[in-house]
Amino acid sequence: MAESLAVQLGVVGAYLLVALAVGLVAYRLTGRDAEDYYLASRSIGTLVLLFTTFATLLSAFTFFGGPTLAYRAGPEWILVMGLMDGIIFAILWYLIGYRQWLIGKVRGYVTLGEMLGDRFGSRRLRALVAGVSLFWLFPYVMLQQMGAGEAIVGLTNGAVPYWVGAAAITLFMIVYVVAAGLRGVAWTDTIQGLFMLGIVWLAVVWVLSSAGGLESVSASMAESKPEFLALGGGLYSPQWMISTAVTIAFGVTMFPQINQRFFVAKDVGVLKRSFALWPVLVVLLFVPAFLLGSWAAGLGVAVPEGANVIPLLLNEYTPAWFAALVIAGAMAAMMSSSDSMLLSGSSYLTRDLYRPFVNPEATDEREAWIARVGVAAFAVGTFAVSLFRPGTLITVGDTAFGGYAQLALPVLVALYWPKTTRQGMFAGIVGSQAFYLLHVFLPAVTVGGVTVFGTTYFTWDFALYGMALSLVLTVGGSLLTTADADERAETFTVGTRAD
């Protein structure tokens, strides 16, 4: 047991050291100006852009939350993440990301708040977008720390406590982000994305081989979980799947670490190739990950409440060193999400809050130090809350996705409709966020058996109604108000002529 534990921790530690070495090399090549630190001087090519976006999304939600949900409720989750979100997000990458890239290339924007604040001549709108983004970033960073803690517990059968894994990923991502900048993050993301894609398929082959082959696994599932083999036989309703797919896809486009990548492509060809290849890449990862969760249910792998299925399945059907390698890769993927989140979050903090409201004359060097201190404080704060484990990985992740999704439609309207006004943007963002927050934090209310305030209305998730409200308030508020002189619609129309 002691020897196996040493091998497992040695593999995880070695992998993390390799990732750290890549970041330190990138630090030597990273400039000290904000554009290079946050956007790698807008010089990212197709392979790196595709895989840094991909790896940034390979979070604890993907590797542990999703397969565990598939273990408990069936493999139809693949339709949500593998197909629906792969396609929907690719479309949104074109509609929102392409236009942001065109505008950002001309105007030199680094953050979404900076772009919208300039468009509408409003520091308060800039701060609002940054504040909302940082608010929902908190639970999603915490999600990675929770996932790392649970992964270490599962891998070592409880020999290493939860807080050690959570603390390790926290320390690593602080050091990494402070040193590397986007260039290092993107390089490491590419290595980790390629590695994780290969290792998860190898895990599928190894588990199948150890369990007697696909026919044997399918027979076990047919016997113990026959509902998993029929479309619609699991616990998912069509309304739930569509609601989840839409809120995740729209929410992803507003994640700071994803949205900021809309600015970094070297040229338009890089951008177009990336969003065209995206659905293929998503299917190649999500299908094997969620099949492993479903197979574990058919094979009778015992998963205690609050635990994750992947480490337990691999411990039972693969050697200790291989299970450790997969978990190391998954932890590295979580750190790809975390370091990107912290890097983008620090840019929102310094450029959209610190510079406009605290010290407009701050030098680039001072801004860089404020960003690094902010990274450390934010990561320590999320770590402290993660120790209380407030909900499952699925519930924490889904809440953050829904919160970000409320931003998407006002941004889309602002990008394409010149008559959008500052008041309309405030109405759309504040109104939908208030609606969503009330539903997240207040208990459901029923009157006479009818839900008047709850998680669903007419079987559809409340997050969709919040999105619809954001659209109505943005358009309606804009129609009822007149643009001020300092609102510059030409900021966006000039940018879109860059093609």
UniProtKB/TrEMBL annotation:
Biological-process GO terms, alphabetical: sodium ion transport
Keywords (A to Z) from UniProt: Cell membrane, Ion transport, Membrane, Sodium, Sodium transport, Symport, Transmembrane, Transmembrane helix, Transport
Top-rank taxon, per record: Archaea
Topology in membrane: Multi-pass membrane protein
A molecular function GO annotation: symporter activity
Main location: membrane
Keyword Cell membrane among record annotations: yes
Cellular component, GO, one term: plasma membrane
Transmembrane annotation, as ranges: 6-27, 39-65, 77-96, 125-142, 162-182, 194-214, 234-255, 275-297, 317-335, 369-388, 400-417, 462-480
CDD domains assigned to the protein according to its UniProt record, in alphabetical order: SLC5sbd
Keyword NAD: no
Subcellular locations according to the entry: Cell membrane
UniProt xrefs under InterPro entries: Na/Glc_symporter_sf (IPR038377), Na/solute_symporter (IPR001734), Sodium:Solute_Symporter (IPR050277)
PANTHER family: SODIUM/PROLINE SYMPORTER-RELATED (PTHR48086), SODIUM_PROLINE SYMPORTER (PTHR48086:SF3)
Protein family per UniProt: Belongs to the sodium:solute symporter (SSF) (TC 2.A.21) family.
Protein's name according to its UniProt entry: Sodium:solute symporter
